Amino acid sequence: MTDNKKIGERIRNARKAKGLSQEQLGEKLGVSFQAVSTWEQGKFIPDSGHLSRLAKVLGISLDSLFAEGENSWELKSINYDFSHMFTFVKGRAQMLRFTQTLHVLDRLREAHGAQERRSRYGFATTYMVHPLTMACHALAMGLQDDDILAAALAHDMVEDAHIRPKDLPVGDRVREAVRLVSKSEYDPNEPDWEDKYYANIRKNPLACMVKCLDRVNNLAGMADAFGREWMIRYTAETDKYYPALLDVIKKVPEWNDAWWLLQYQMMTTLEAFKRIL
After folding, report:
1. What is the separation, in whole angstroms, between the first and last Cα of the chain?
2. Which candidate in 18, 129, 170, 195 could, as Cys together with 174 as Cys, close a disulfide (CB 3.0–4.6 Å)?
3. pLDDT digits (tens, 9 = 90+) for 226-276
């Protein structure tokens, strides 16, 4: 197989992952679908005038397009079994008598049962795996804390399920943390809304913990869900705002071990993406 054919295969695979036809890709690049077809067949490669735009539209890097090495890895779902995690968290909450966590678990299907966790590669799973993974992560780090688990499980209920903070089946501390990590109160058209959002979170240690658990899980699944341009923005946002949130967590003595693990997981993943992207 020639290098051109390898490049053509990568263009075709990236186009299909984006859900684009040859005609649609051609329209975005200002070329005919016949031109796209010749690229994908390996007859020609895109000229320099189209390469940058092609990589941007397909959400890939030029390095990956022209990489000499090739792999035949089988892609698998990155999400774990929902029912197993639900049973695990519920069993632990019952053993520890975490009433808030149990109440939020009872609302989980109502809030997120109809939502899906997105994948660019055809894998589909319930959105509930996300808050459940955060709760399992907290437990794995030794954070046996009803407020943390309940806040992790409820953290998207205001923003994504449109449940009012006052209607969450939790106490005031958890309710306030969930309110703070929700973006519903901010106008994304305001240029400094993110600065205000993260500044308010930094005032609340529980909100910082929930937001960092959330970010570690989202970073782990970023390449599965997002195109290259979005991943670059997400990496830049994490690099800018999250060290300060981790510093808040570090100052809570009983969270010190969890702080070290969160920092390690977040920053090593972040630096890996910086080098790849």
Report:
1. 27
2. 170
3. 888 889 999 999 999 999 999 999 999 999 999 999 999 999 999 999 988
Say which CATH class 3-66 falls into. mainly alpha
- Of 83, 94, 170, 93, give the one whose Cα is nearest residue 135: 93
Identify how many contiguous H helices and E strands the chain contains and give both numbers: 15, 2
The domain 82-276 is placed in CATH, from the list 3.10.310.50, 1.10.3210.10, 3.40.190.10, 1.25.40.10, at 1.10.3210.10
Lowest mean pLDDT among 18-22, 201-205, 259-263: 18-22
Round the CA-based radius of gyration of the chain to a whole number and report it: 22
- Could you read off the pLDDT of 70-117 as tens digits, one per residue? 565 677 888 778 899 999 999 999 999 999 999 999 999 999 999 998
Whether the full predicted model's pTM is greater than 0.70, yes or no, is yes
The SS3 assignment for 117 reads strand
Query: Bridge partners of 125?
Result: 117
Within 30-81, residue ranges assigned H as helices are 33-41, 48-58, 62-66
Question: Which phi and psi (to 5°) does residue 232 adopt?
Answer: -65, -45
3-class state of residue 257 by DSSP: helix
What is each CA distance from 181 to 20, 139, 147, 213, in whole angstroms? 35, 20, 14, 12
Reduce the DSSP state of residue 125 to 3 states and report it: strand
Burial of 242 (0-12, 13-18, 19+ CB in 10 A): buried
Inter-residue contact 183 to 159 (CB < 8 Å): yes
Of 195, 269, 277, 266, which Cα lies nearest the Cα of 231?
Answer: 277
Confidence of residue 1 (pLDDT cuts 50, 70, 90): very low
Cβ pair 149, 139 in contact under 8 A: yes
